[in-house]
Amino acid sequence: MEKTKNNSMETKLTDFILLGLSHPPNLRTFLFLVFLVIYILTQLGNMLILLTVWTDPQLHIRPMYILLGVLSFLDMWLSTVIVPRIMLSFTPASKTIQFGGCIAQLYSFHFLGSTQCFLYTLMAYDRYLAICQPLHYPVLMNGRLCTMLVAGAWVAGSIHGAIQATLTFQLPYCGPNQVDYFFCDIPAVLRLACADTTVNELVTFVDIGVVAASCFLLILLSYANIVYAILQIRTADGRHKAFSTCGSHLTVVTVYYVPCIFIYLRPGSKSPLDGAVAVFYTVVTPLLNPLIYTLRNKEVKSALRKLARGGSATK
């Protein structure tokens, strides 16, 4: 463990050691391969969605699919920020991460994660307008407005990540330097601070937990209105199509938000379940997103078939 001393003779850490996920030593090779496969499939699946949306002229101008493409892009980067570090923990390589690297990882994770939260909310709003306000939908949600809303989500996510990283690492860290987690996240890092973390835990609770819970409630409210509108559709085929379109989004939202709220609305928790729950929304969700949207969306499946044939959607 490297340390430096400042003018006040206070010892300051220059690196951390990520202890990773608890696992039996004899399963290291197996777990490494599992996460390697997950990472590769996540990148390929989300890249395929991006290519499909980008190359199909009927998809890349529609707000629903613009949002889906942005989600795939975020999933690719979120997986890249987290999964390689998990894989490293199953190898003999050093588990050390430099202080600056820890800051960058925490910022990147919360930037990408919060942007996803806002994006899921926008996707729910888009579906609400499409189903509950179909006649006004082209005016209320067009490509330009969708792009502006996505840009706003990125800016808000960046600000959120910067606030969390700044508040976390302005605290003094003087040892020990072992982070009992698989990446640099706020609750695990704060346990190593050589100062009172009450304010940080309160900010984490409000800025992450409450914001995530608020977005989740807005999404549920949107879908409550959507379900009511769908039930008014007279034809069974119309109801099935509307439910199919929204079902995939609601599935992804539930898989993402419930574990996230479980982690951040319990400040100071040291439950062994936290690591397993965090793996679900940091590793599994980016893998599931392209599968769920592909399997439950006829337009995406049709565009994928055209892409596989090497043909153009305009033919």
How would you describe this protein?
By secondary structure, the chain is mainly alpha-helical. 70% of the residues lie in helices and 5% in strands. A hairpin with a 5-residue loop joins strand 1 and strand 2 (11-13). Helix 2 packs antiparallel against helix 3 (99-132).
Summarize the structure.
The chain is mainly alpha-helical and about 325 residues long.
Report the CATH architecture.
Up-down Bundle
Structural class: mainly alpha
Kindly report the spatial arrangement of strands forming the biggest sheet.
4-3-5
Query: What is the overall shape?
Result: globular
How many separate helices?
10
Mind telling me the CATH superfamily name? Rhodopsin 7-helix transmembrane proteins
What is the alpha-carbon Rg in Å? 21 Å
The largest β sheet comes out as: 3 strands, mixed
Spans of 5+ residues with little confidence (pLDDT < 50)? 5-9
CATH topology annotation? Rhopdopsin 7-helix transmembrane proteins
Total count of strands: 5
Strand content: under 5%
Main CATH class: Mainly Alpha
User: Structurally, how many domains make up the residues?
Assistant: 1
> SSE order, as H and E?
EEEHHEHHHEHHHHH
State the distance separating the first and last CA atoms: 62 Å
Helix share, percent: over 70%
Roughly what is the average pLDDT, rounded to an integer?
82
Organism: Sarcophilus harrisii (Tasmanian devil)
Transmembrane segments: 30-53, 65-87, 107-125, 145-163, 208-231, 243-265, 277-295
Keywords: Cell membrane, Membrane, Olfaction, Sensory transduction, Transducer, Transmembrane, Transmembrane helix
Subcellular location: Cell membrane
